């Protein structure tokens, strides 16, 4: 190795060009299994071993771009998921599938029809979630107002807001070494409390909203406290208990809706009274667009969780317990207290997510499906966001966009909304197994190899 | 990976002094008995509570006056609770607890049946037993899939997805081929497909197993729901009209009173499920395969040292679990209903509860599944006699029971030691 190497701390063998030296050094910092890590090196061939004084910035950028860092793996996971989704669309369309029966004689038919089907579906996904060129030109021509241009973004933010909360809930618990599968149940109790406060309490506007939001948080906190204390006192595994409590909460909701005083007196089906308008989150962009103040609360919550984790004493204790409970206990941290607090905070966040569902614009009354899947989606969001608060926010925006776009894809292209679920699950599967993505795309090992969001613990 | 030394596995705290676990349980049982004798006794009516030995009101019946029955069985529960409180030998704990709980349930039933609208004061036992087994069937298959997986050290939260995929591919390929047997094989392969993903990602790529299970459930819901809308809803005659297994009557056994008509005139899945419990129980505790499976699940390093191929055992068991769960899914689509979106609807998680409640033991899982199936059937029955008990609370019962069990209130629950921990040969 020449003395003017850009990596003074490099411990790689001699006679290697700088770029490979860096790749080798990256491999050292990689926690993946060695066989996977060494694979990509062979594919990289740097032509002449001429001593480079310094690799150009562009070269470094390209090297890092094709390395298995967080960003590239996330992006390629998205690509893989989209490809699998396209395959599913094609094999489930009999008309398109029939063109494959004569693919050897006229391959253009099969390719064209598949391309039309897939590109149209994904174009609708994009138009429904981010930007619709037709609405934009319509606005320029005066055919429609500015609301139509912002409608896709509004939908995306509306779907994203509750997912931010549940994602943060799961991520916070993850950092403390607990796996909160109960965000669904906590959000369910949250939605119940928020709705009850929303239509039972006669309060002035402003205060009413505050009370309703806090009631949701309290409901979530209670439902988080139960597995927390069972974990801390009896050693009962939180995964089992939160799964069970999810179902208890769901059945409680379906029972509660049809009780006197809760059920809408004018309806015979399972729907509660509507939340008073004084307890509803204000809409941000006029009454025609659904986006409401919940997304602002979500950003605030993200900031608060980031502060809690990285700046506060509790956050330090929480991360210490998550990293090594024995060491934390030796250092004088009360592990039982921390476990309880983690679950309570996780419950509060999920409960706020529940409040969003009934106080925002998604629904204004309790129904058996009012919580949708936000708790389970929150798990995926947390994993996609690498259990970091701001990462969770971005992941929730992506998932919100997928759902908003999925609605348009369903109504315009006839592609069922379930495809969005498939895409979401696939993205997270690929993200959870970075070694697989690396192997498929022949990525080189990255410097920052903290890709494995794994707890690796049993019941 | 770091090892968690905080009670990672659920272990009941060691009680010291007078208030042993047995006494605490006894006190709880005593309370339940008092509740049933006083409250149920007061609420029960003077109607005769009839438990008919048939499918309907006709035929022979066990009868008891509602009030007397509620109080009598409540007193039995009180006596059992008092016995536990006074202190009984350890080997008597489970039987006495069982008697007490049965007393409580019977007291409850006496109240409910006697308080039903006039003319409906009967409980058809054949119907109830048959319904219990039918409702327990997916739980039995699911819990067995869990046993196979987790005994070898792979956490299986994906039971729901395996059942669903089995049900879907059973319906799809059964419909296309028109043969139940093709459907059955396809269902097994469908369940094994989800298992394969679980195995590859958990064993090869070391992804957290609980995470993987949750994601696989969502994937199964998404894929089956998507294909259901695209294929089955557009052309149900071609893709969603699978043939069904007819009922097989077992000679001799079908003539046993009550149990015969309830159990031995059922379909292949019922027999297969019960047979599998037996086979897996014997296999797990009496054969070389079972010993290896258990050793890999408890202490993979030791097993590896002795020459057991840890990863191979895990792969094989996880795939086997998928086959079993896939067949369980087919017990819906090849015997009872046509496929609908998300038709398993949480049964996979109750199966998980049954697995834990049954202490990772095939026979225990069977009993837990039957208990949960009974609660489910009871909810249906109480709905039919317009009972005042909301069915939702009975539906909560399996989940609450599992929470109590895991918290160490209903006995010690301990998972296989290496359950969920990936093995890296080092």
Automatic annotation (TrEMBL), chain A:
InterPro entries attached to this UniProt entry: ABC_transp_permease
UniProt membrane topology term: Multi-pass membrane protein
Entry's Gene Ontology molecular function annotations: transmembrane transporter activity
Domain of life: Bacteria
CDD domains assigned: TM_PBP1_transp_TpRbsC_like
Subcellular location: Cell membrane
Main subcellular location: membrane
Ranges for region Disordered: 1-55
One Pfam entry name: BPD_transp_2
Record's GO cellular component terms: plasma membrane
Bias type Basic and acidic residues, positions: 32-42
Keywords linked to the UniProt accession: Cell membrane, Membrane, Transmembrane, Transmembrane helix
Biased composition regions of type Polar residues, renumbered to the chain: 1-12
Record keyword Cell membrane present: yes
Listed PANTHER family: ABC TRANSPORTER, PERMEASE PROTEIN (PTHR47089), GUANOSINE ABC TRANSPORTER PERMEASE PROTEIN NUPP (PTHR47089:SF1)
Protein name: ABC transporter permease
TrEMBL record, chain B:
Pfam families per the UniProt record, alphabetical: BPD_transp_2
Main location: membrane
Transmembrane intervals: 25-44, 64-85, 92-116, 128-147, 154-174, 180-203, 210-228, 268-285, 318-337, 349-372, 393-413
Subcellular location: Cell membrane
One annotated Gene Ontology cellular component of this protein: plasma membrane
Topology term for the membrane: Multi-pass membrane protein
GO MF term set: transmembrane transporter activity
PANTHER family for the chain: GUANOSINE ABC TRANSPORTER PERMEASE PROTEIN NUPQ, SUGAR ABC TRANSPORTER INTEGRAL MEMBRANE PROTEIN-RELATED
Keywords: Cell membrane, Membrane, Transmembrane, Transmembrane helix
Native organism: Micromonospora inaquosa
Name this protein carries in UniProt: ABC transporter permease
């Amino acid at each position: 190795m020449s003395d003017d190497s850009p990596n003074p701390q490099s411990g790689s063998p001699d006679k290697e060009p700088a770029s490979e030296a860096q790749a080798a050094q990256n491999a050292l910092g990689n926690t993946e299994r060695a066989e996977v890590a060494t694979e990509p090196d062979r594919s990289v061939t740097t032509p002449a071993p001429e001593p480079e004084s310094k690799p150009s910035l562009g070269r470094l950028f390209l090297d890092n771009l094709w390395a298995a860092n967080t960003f590239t793996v996330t992006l390629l996971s998205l690509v893989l998921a989209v490809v699998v989704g396209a395959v599913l669309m094609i094999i489930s369309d009999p008309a398109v599938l029939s063109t494959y029966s004569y693919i050897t004689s006229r391959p253009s038919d099969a390719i064209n029809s598949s391309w039309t089907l897939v590109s149209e579906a994904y174009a609708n996904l994009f138009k429904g979630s981010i930007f619709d060129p037709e609405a934009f030109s319509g606005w320029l021509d005066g055919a429609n107002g500015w609301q139509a241009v912002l409608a896709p973004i509004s939908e995306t933010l509306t779907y994203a807001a509750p997912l931010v909360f549940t994602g943060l809930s799961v991520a916070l618990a993850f950092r403390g070494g607990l796996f909160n599968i109960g965000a669904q149940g906590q959000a369910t109790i949250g939605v119940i409390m928020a709705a009850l406060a929303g239509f039972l309490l006669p309060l002035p506007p402003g205060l009413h909203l505050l009370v309703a939001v806090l009631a949701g948080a309290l409901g979530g906190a209670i439902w988080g406290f139960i597995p927390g204390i069972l974990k801390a006192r009896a050693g009962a595994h939180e995964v089992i208990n939160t799964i069970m409590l999810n179902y208890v909460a769901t059945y409680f909701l379906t029972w509660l809706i049809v009780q006197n005083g809760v059920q809408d007196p004018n309806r015979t089906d399972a729907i509660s009274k509507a939340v008073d308008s004084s307890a509803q989150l204000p809409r941000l962009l006029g009454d025609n667009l659904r986006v409401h103040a919940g997304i602002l609360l979500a950003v605030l919550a993200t900031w608060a969780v980031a502060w809690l984790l990285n700046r506060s004493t509790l956050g330090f204790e929480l991360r210490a317990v998550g990293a090594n409970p024995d060491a934390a206990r030796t250092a004088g941290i009360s592990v039982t207290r921390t476990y309880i607090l983690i679950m309570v905070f996780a419950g509060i966040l999920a409960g706020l997510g529940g409040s969003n569902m009934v106080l925002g614009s998604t629904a204004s009354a309790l129904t058996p499906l009012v919580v949708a899947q936000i708790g389970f989606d929150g798990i995926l969001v947390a994993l996609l966001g690498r259990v970091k608060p701001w990462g969770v926010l971005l992941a929730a925006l992506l998932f919100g966009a997928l759902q908003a776009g999925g609605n348009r894809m369903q109504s315009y292209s006839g592609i069922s909304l379930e495809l969005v679920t498939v895409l979401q699950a696939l993205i997270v599967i690929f993200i959870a197994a970075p070694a697989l993505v690396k192997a498929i795309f022949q990525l080189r090992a990255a410097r920052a190899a903290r890709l494995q969001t794994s707890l690796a613990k049993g019941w | 990976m770091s090892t968690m030394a905080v009670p990672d596995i659920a272990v009941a705290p060691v009680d010291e002094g007078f208030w042993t676990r047995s006494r605490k349980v006894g006190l709880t049982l005593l309370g339940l008995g008092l509740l049933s004798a006083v409250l149920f006794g007061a609420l029960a009516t003077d109607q005769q509570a009839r438990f008919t030995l048939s499918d309907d009101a006709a035929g022979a019946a066990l009868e008891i006056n509602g009030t007397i029955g509620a109080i009598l069985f409540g007193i039995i529960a009180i006596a059992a609770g008092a016995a536990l409180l006074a202190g009984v030998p350890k080997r008597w704990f489970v039987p006495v607890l069982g008697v007490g709980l049965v007393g409580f349930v019977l007291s409850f039933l006496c109240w409910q049946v006697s308080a039903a609208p006039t003319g409906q004061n009967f409980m058809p036992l054949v119907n109830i037993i048959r319904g219990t087994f039918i409702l327990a069937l997916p739980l039995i298959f699911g819990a067995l899939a869990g046993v196979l997986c987790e005994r070898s050290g792979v956490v299986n939260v994906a039971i729901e997805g395996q059942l669903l995929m089995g049900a879907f591919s059973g319906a799809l390929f059964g419909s296309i081929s028109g043969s139940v047997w093709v459907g059955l094989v396809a269902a097994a392969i469908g369940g094994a497909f989800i298992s394969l993903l679980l195995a590859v990602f958990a064993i090869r790529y070391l992804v957290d197993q609980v995470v993987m299970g949750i994601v696989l459930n969502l994937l199964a819901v998404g894929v089956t729901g998507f294909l259901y809308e695209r294929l089955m809803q557009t052309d149900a005659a071609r893709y969603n009209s699978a043939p069904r297994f007819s009922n097989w009557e077992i000679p001799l056994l079908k003539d046993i009173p009550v149990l015969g008509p309830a159990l031995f005139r059922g379909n292949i899945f019922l027999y297969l499920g019960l047979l599998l419990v037996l086979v897996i129980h014997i296999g797990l505790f009496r054969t070389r395969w079972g010993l290896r499976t258990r050793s890999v699940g408890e202490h993979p390093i030791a097993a590896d040292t002795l020459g057991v191929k840890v990863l191979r055992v895990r792969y094989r068991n996880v795939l086997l679990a998928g086959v079993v769960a896939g067949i369980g899914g087919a017990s819906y689509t090849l015997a009872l209903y046509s496929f609908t979106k998300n038709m398993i609807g949480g049964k996979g998680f109750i199966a998980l509860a049954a697995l834990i409640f049954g202490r990772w033991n095939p026979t225990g899982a069977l009993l837990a599944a039957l208990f949960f199936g009974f609660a489910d059937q009871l909810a249906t029955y109480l709905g039919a006699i317009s009972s005042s008990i909301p069915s939702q609370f009975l539906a909560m019962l399996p989940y609450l029971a599992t929470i109590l069990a895991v918290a160490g209130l209903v006995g010690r629950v301990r998972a296989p030691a290496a359950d969920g921990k990936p093995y890296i040969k080092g």
